[in-house]
Amino acid sequence: MNDFSIPKKTFLLIPAGTYRATITSLEKTTGNFGDQIKLVFHVLTDGIEGLEYTEGSVDLLAWCSANYSEKSKLYRWSRAALAGEFDPAADFLASRLINKRVLVNIERYTKDGGDFNRIMDVIAAPHSKAKPAAATTTITPPPPPEPPADDIPW
Hints:
Number of helices: 1
Distance between the termini: 120 Å
Strand order of the largest sheet: 3-2-1-4-5
Mean pLDDT: 85
Helix content: under 10%
Shape: elongated
Strand content: 35-45%
Order of helices and strands: EEEHEE
Oligomer: single chain
């Protein structure tokens, strides 16, 4: 028998909370629960105490059923990701969600003796409001000073 090594895989746990994230990929898969959509969220962890070692971000996976109706998680998450661009009458199109910024609500849970993170919900990211243009005022320069009486030619 040939000896071989398999590195131990470790999972990063981040504290429960709401984080800024970007949807980086979607994939349709089939598993024990039928057709599923696997989403990859690039979660920003900059400035969060205890997460300095993440280099500012971590990728988290989330799954939802491949059903698309007003009662489905995929529909709710799409509505959050697309925000003002969301069309309730349109069919689901995965490419429309790529690179969309969202907020993710992350919780920690224990399963089979291990701790994990889970994306519980996806929320529309607040859009930065355009700053109002600075008020423009017209400044009229003062009139030139009157010449001294000696300089007036008559």
